[in-house]
Amino acid sequence: MTASAAAGGSPGPAGSPGPAGSASAAGGPAGAAGGAAGGDVIGETRREVCALHAELVRNGLVAWTSGNVSARVPGTGLMVIKPSGVAYADLTPAAMVVCDLAGDRVDGQFSPSSDTAAHAYVYRHMPGVGGVVHTHSTYATAWAARGEAIPCVITAMADEFGGEIPVGPFALIGGDEIGRGIVATLAGHRSPAVLMRSHGVFTVGPTARDAVKAAVMCEDVARTVHLARVLGAPEPLPAGQVDALHRRYKDHYGQR
């Protein structure tokens, strides 16, 4: 079902808000984050999350309806995430689903992503995370299928990831098992990306945009390192050089 098709208004399940056109279209559930101000921040988060899904398509990270972006709603115990099974071309801000950090839908006419429980677990256990992204991007998912970490053999990896991109455990989709694997794996790494075994990529960041950037860069380095290995056996960068590159990138790269 597309967002436009559903706009005519099928109500949500018992106890949940109804269709876009009232609270959903206006930006969020009344009172969920302190009245009008809360509605404004929910509406802005919905617009941001919707726009960032277009970046997944533009960068070739997703196929059909797979993949998702979520963002923590600032100052609330809420998150906004992509609806399940809705085509990227049909996504609108009003179609984005508002959930609490238990993963339950609070507002929106669609069911949330099947990865919602995993995203919610990350937000509950990683308070510095403001955005989570999931893709099945080709090269990075090929490394995940092999159950192999991407070694840090190029400066771009040292910059962005601070070392290798680790592999997390296999976990079934639908519950918080994936979230548990993400949190446990990233706890010992500087990397904002994890390759969940035989599944795909999950990335985190202080903002949803940062998490999208990490997903783009993860696929880029996965491809480069794969090609390097086809040509030979690339040597991992020494730990001291990785530390220096990562520190320079975090402290000095870009406009300040």
Question: What does this entry show, briefly?
Answer:
This protein has 256 residues and is an alpha+beta fold. The chain has helices spanning 3-6, 23-26, 36-58, 116-125, 138-146, 155-161, 177-186, 208-231, 239-252, and strands at 68-72, 78-81, 97-100, 105-107, 131-135, 167-168, 193-196, 200-205. It is globular.
Walk me through the structure:
The chain has a single domain (33-251), classed as Class II aldolase/adducin N-terminal domain (L-fuculose-1-phosphate Aldolase, 3-Layer(aba) Sandwich). The longest helix is centred in the C-terminal third of the chain and has 24 residues, at 208-231. It has nine helices and eight strands. α7 links the parallel β6 and β7. It has an eight-stranded mixed sheet, with helices on both faces. With 256 residues, the protein is α+β, with helices and mostly antiparallel strands.
